[in-house]
């Protein structure tokens, strides 16, 4: 299960995306997952497959805090336990459960752990800024026809800004003839922090890589907070679901969410047009492509991917 992306916490959406009486289907690293809320309103996640005949549970209804299979009406609680087998009052329901997955609601986001079971060996690593309660989060998703590693390394790539984003954010890294760009990487427990200098002058933007698949951009906004997070969620080997989240302590009304979304979609569209042409689809070993000094953040990501994720796999649950 979750081949190439196993045993990690990943953001999968905003917590407000998960409604009280509706199933939320997702696909993560080739595995279909369904999220729903139990009778107490808590987020739950199951493998989106009924153990009876393999039907997608997400096609069913959420009833009394359980999800009901659309085929034969079997009902499953948030922990995967079977609560009802119609026509079979004597069924051994303790042996007829679905497969649960760890899920958390933290800081306005939904986090999924990519291995079966109710428990996880760790908890999601929440950015400090999201511990505050005076912020507004808004977000949207885009689908990229690309392997998630190409999307992830693009989000860590400083030098592309004045070229790919000529119509939007090129001034975030102003390019002049003969200029020298220096990029510094600082290891952090959750990944790494990068800063830049142009011709020896430090630039004000900070960019973080948060393992395994999130970029966190800190933008200068005076005394205000304005930050962006991008999560490259693998759907399968050829498709990535990109979640872009804006974090701000101003213009907090939901009415302004569409404004920030419009700008984010334009920037994301510029990236997508280039990323989808990458060959090979998956990032190759560093030596297979020509790299230079300013590629350090992307090369560090490639090493992390190959060392910690590429060969990972979660065992199938006992049936």
UniProtKB/TrEMBL annotation:
GO terms for molecular function: 2 iron, 2 sulfur cluster binding; dioxygenase activity; iron ion binding. It holds the Pfam family VanA_C. Keywords: 2Fe-2S, Dioxygenase, Iron, Iron-sulfur, Metal-binding, Oxidoreductase. The keyword Oxidoreductase applies. Residues 9-112 form the Rieske domain. The keyword Repressor does not apply. This is Phenylpropionate dioxygenase, large terminal subunit. It comes from Nannocystis exedens.
């Amino acid at each position: 299960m979750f081949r190439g992306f196993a045993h990690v916490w990943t953001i999968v959406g905003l917590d407000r995306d998960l409604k009280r009486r509706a199933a939320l289907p997702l696909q993560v690293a080739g595995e279909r997952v369904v999220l729903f809320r139990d009778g107490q309103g808590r987020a739950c996640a199951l493998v989106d497959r009924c153990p009876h005949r393999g039907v997608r549970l997400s096609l069913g209804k959420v009833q009394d805090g359980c999800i009901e299979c659309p085929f034969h009406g079997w009902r499953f609680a948030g922990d995967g336990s079977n609560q009802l087998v119609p026509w079979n009052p004597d069924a051994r329901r303790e042996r007829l459960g679905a497969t649960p997955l760890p899920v958390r609601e933290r800081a306005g986001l939904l986090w999924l752990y990519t291995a079966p079971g109710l428990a996880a060996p760790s908890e999601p690593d929440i950015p400090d800024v999201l511990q505050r309660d005076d912020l507004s989060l808004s977000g949207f998703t885009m689908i990229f026809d690309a392997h998630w590693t190409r999307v992830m390394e693009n989000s860590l790539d400083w030098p592309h800004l004045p070229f790919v984003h000529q119509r939007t954010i090129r001034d975030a890294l102003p390019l002049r003839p003969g200029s020298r760009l220096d990029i510094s990487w600082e290891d952090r427990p959750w990944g790494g922090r990068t800063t830049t200098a142009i011709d020896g002058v430090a630039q004000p933007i900070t960019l973080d890589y948060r393992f395994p698949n999130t970029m966190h951009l800190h933008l200068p906004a005076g005394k205000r907070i304005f930050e962006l997070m991008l999560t490259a969620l693998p759907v399968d080997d050829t498709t990535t679901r990109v979640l872009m989240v804006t974090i701000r302590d101003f213009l907090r009304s939901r009415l302004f969410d569409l404004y920030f979304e419009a700008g984010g979609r334009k920037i994301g569209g510029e990236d997508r047009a280039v990323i989808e042409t990458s060959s090979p689809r998956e990032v190759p070993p560093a030596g297979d492509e020509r790299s230079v000094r300013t590629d350090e953040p992307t090369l560090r990501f490639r090493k992390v991917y190959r060392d910690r994720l590429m060969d990972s796999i979660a065992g199938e649950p006992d049936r």
